[in-house]
């Protein structure tokens, strides 16, 4: 994503604290904790004073549940794209394994200076030299050719004068000129890739160069997606009055795949204790984590917290001081995370990105920081004092500046995140970012509106 070089540095705020938080979470050891619930049964709702900030909620969850990859396996090189390394990769060979030429020219001994050399042969690509060179000799060599014994430099053919079978360099070659020494790219025994690194195109090329065809990777965690709500119908159906298409599961599944997890589409759970109980127990028994959408608030039909309490440790955090997503539930069945997301589409996806994503990445084994985009606010980004707001934003490049504009926050709008390039974390303080001030936009796991170019 382009960024303006001279843009002022953003003050240390919510995005920087969240980056530090993720590093801390990876080191957290689980301990026994009591549930942090902001539900006030007497009032029939959440006690705002007991709501926890998102960072505090995540710390509590990671402290209570041991989150780590579920094992390791071997992936063939051609199938390793997007996987996460389960162990360090150490070079078993030097790269290159021998000195080679950096250009087309003549391999020669620098000690002969500018004296004429007799051309005594030619190096063929993919083959070692048939002979070495002695004093006053040179061998024609292509780019990438193996340097012959006795040579310590290569002189470009365009900088040499040819006189029959003799070649004369136009100046005294320096030792090592135009030569790639053995091991200059990768040294024998060098650790070139660390465990926890996601494998992309450059990493695949390096693994192939090193001859690593069976790649040690973490097992992809299986994450069950359970939609709740009698109002939901399949995307191929036309909703009747009061019904909506079950869209959350497809956005969540795409994000899970992008993060390196394997989404498991479970049947929808009915709005009855028996229906939700059967589906949640089945999901926990067959998956490494469970995402539920809907049913996490405090209404009569919000059954997710009640059914999650049938497991141990059960609910760990219920209610977070955020918008959107206040009713979010973080629970567990043993070491299987259970995340109760809001039912409204934009809320469900916002909480997945901001809250559930670190949990999924811990199971995936990916240790890389999430890269965000430093931008300049084109319009005010307004939250609420004492709260954390996740504000969707559009990005545009204008006159060399990366500008961010907030989108109107509507929890029920299914198109909101598709119109946004990412989201800003407007923290408890400062809770307002004025036009012209720096703001950091966090990208989605996958997709979002492309950068506009003015």
Q: What descriptive keywords fit this protein?
A:
Molybdenum Cofactor Biosythetic Enzyme, Chain A, Molybdopterin biosynthesis moeA protein, domain 3, 3 domains, 454 residues, 7-stranded mixed beta sheet, Molybdopterin biosynthesis moea protein, domain 2
What is the CATH top level name of the largest domain?
A: Alpha Beta
Rg, Cα atoms, Å: 30 Å
Gross CATH architecture of the largest domain: 3-Layer(aba) Sandwich
The CATH topology annotation of the largest domain reads as Molybdenum Cofactor Biosythetic Enzyme, Chain A
Helical residue percent band: 10-25%
Number of DSSP strand runs = 32
Q: What is the average of the pLDDT values?
A: 91
Strand order of the largest sheet: 1-21-23-24-20-16-19
Helix vs. strand class: alpha/beta
């Amino acid at each position: 994503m382009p960024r303006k070089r001279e843009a002022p540095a953003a003050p240390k705020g919510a995005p920087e604290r969240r980056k530090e938080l993720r590093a801390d979470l990876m080191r957290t050891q689980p301990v026994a904790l009591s549930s942090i619930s902001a539900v006030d049964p007497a009032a029939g709702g959440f006690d705002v004073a007991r709501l926890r900030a998102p960072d505090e909620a995540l710390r509590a969850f990671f402290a209570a549940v041991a989150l780590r990859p579920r094992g390791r396996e071997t992936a063939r090189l051609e199938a390793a794209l997007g996987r996460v390394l389960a162990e360090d990769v150490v070079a078993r060979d030097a790269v290159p394994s021998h000195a080679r030429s950096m250009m087309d020219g003549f391999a020669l001994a620098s000690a002969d200076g500018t004296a004429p050399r007799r051309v005594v042969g030619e190096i063929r690509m993919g083959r070692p030299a048939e002979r070495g060179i002695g004093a006053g000799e040179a061998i024609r060599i292509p780019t990438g050719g193996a340097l012959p014994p006795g040579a310590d430099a290569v002189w470009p053919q365009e900088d040499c004068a040819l006189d029959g079978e003799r070649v004369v360099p136009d100046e005294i070659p320096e030792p090592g000129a135009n030569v790639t020494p053995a091991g200059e790219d990768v040294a024998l025994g060098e650790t070139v890739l660390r465990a926890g690194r996601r494998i992309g195109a450059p990493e695949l090329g390096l693994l192939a160069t090193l001859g690593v065809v069976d790649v040690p990777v973490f097992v992809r965690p299986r994450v069950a997606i359970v939609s709740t709500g009698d109002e939901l119908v399949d995307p191929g159906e036309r909703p009747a009055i009061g019904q909506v298409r079950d869209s959350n599961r497809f956005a969540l599944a795409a994000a899970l795949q992008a993060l390196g997890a394997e989404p498991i589409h479970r049947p929808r759970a009915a709005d009855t204790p028996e229906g939700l109980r059967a589906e949640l127990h089945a999901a926990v028994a067959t998956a490494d984590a469970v995402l539920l959408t809907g049913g996490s608030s405090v209404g009569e039909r919000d059954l997710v917290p009640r059914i999650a309490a049938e497991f141990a440790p059960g609910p760990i955090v219920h209610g977070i001081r955020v918008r959107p997503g206040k009713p979010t539930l973080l629970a567990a069945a043993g070491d299987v995370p259970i995340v109760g997301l809001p039912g409204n589409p934009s809320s469900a996806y916002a909480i997945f990105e901001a809250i559930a994503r670190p949990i999924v990445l811990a199971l995936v084994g990916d240790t890389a920081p999430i890269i965000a985009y430093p931008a300049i606010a084109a319009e005010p980004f307004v939250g609420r004092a004492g709260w954390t707001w996740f504000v969707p934003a559009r990005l545009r490049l204008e006159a060399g500046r990366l500008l961010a504009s907030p989108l109107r926050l509507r929890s029920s709008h299914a198109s909101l995140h598709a119109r946004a390039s990412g989201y800003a974390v407007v923290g408890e303080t400062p809770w307002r970012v004025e036009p012209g001030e720096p703001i950091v936009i966090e990208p989605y796991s996958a997709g979002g509106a492309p950068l506009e170019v003015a």
